[in-house]
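Quick question, first post here. What does this chain look like in 3D?
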Amino acid sequence: MTTYLSIEDLARETALEESLIRFYESEYPQRLPKKILKGGVLFFDGLAVDAFKQVHQLHGTNAALSEKATPALQKGYARVLAVTSGKGGVGKTNIALNLAIEFQRLGKMVLVVDADLGMANIHLLAGIHPEHNLKDIITAGLKVSEIIVEGPEGIGIVPGGAGVLALADSTPVERVRMLAALEDMELAADIVIVDTGAGMSTGVRDFLLSADEILFVLTPDITSLADAYGLLKALHHENYGGPVYSVVNMVTTLQQSADVALRFSGCVRQFLGREVVNVGYILKDATVGAATVNRTPFSVYDKEARVSKNVRNLAASLLQKDMPELKLNSAFKRYMNLIKR
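> Answer (accepted):
Ran it through. Tokens below.
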């Protein structure tokens, strides 16, 4: 029978401080069992007790670490990656969902936020039926932990849905409340993927500007490049300073992918003076359509399909670019403090 332990339970069983447990989670994930998502809350497995004791013995004494580590480092905030595009219809949501699954398979605890305020549909692609969505954080005062549902391969999903479009025109107070609620997720996951809508409405801008990193989904369609450039230009003028990546979707050849990526990065470098790093490509594959009809992520529908392998490579590439300093503070709180000024 599986034992579910809260962090308070684990601290009591191991005699370790909660902050030290958080620190060990961020520093030694490969030595610890994965967390379990149950009832919208993340728990530790019973096996975690012995695992944390072993890690503690490996690392050194509790007192020595407590004197040197900062509180933020001990908590270990999640990496917040926004997946976006300049226009709709480029496969952004499918990539966000399947990227989360591949991150999870690589040993990361992942939460996906469906922040596409106009066309929230991750729940449809994941085959789940959520009772609540992001709007309930504002209208019903729910916590993020109360609306998270378990998705394929154990990922957590924060659903969007009918009526969420109203968040795009929310008041400053409501925006701060939303960001404060999302901050809680950063202590419950390794990676938070935010699937944003296209464009630069207030709601979309909040999610993009608060992210640690942004992944632009491009296609060979010239309007995709033009609209993506327009969006990045707007973010640049808002002083967004995080890393920007691109992935080219729906290509037929590797040469086509390279041409699109170079055209976009070259334009951004010339006119905005910043770099966009291409981290992958996704070839056209009929598996995507078949998986969508079956309301199953394509990386679950056929994990050996070409498109699934492409996203797996994308996940591996992004993990190589992980920056430990992102764990020092909350991305959502950092941006929340800016808009409250």
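The chain has a mean pLDDT of 84.
The chain is about 45% helix and 15% strand.
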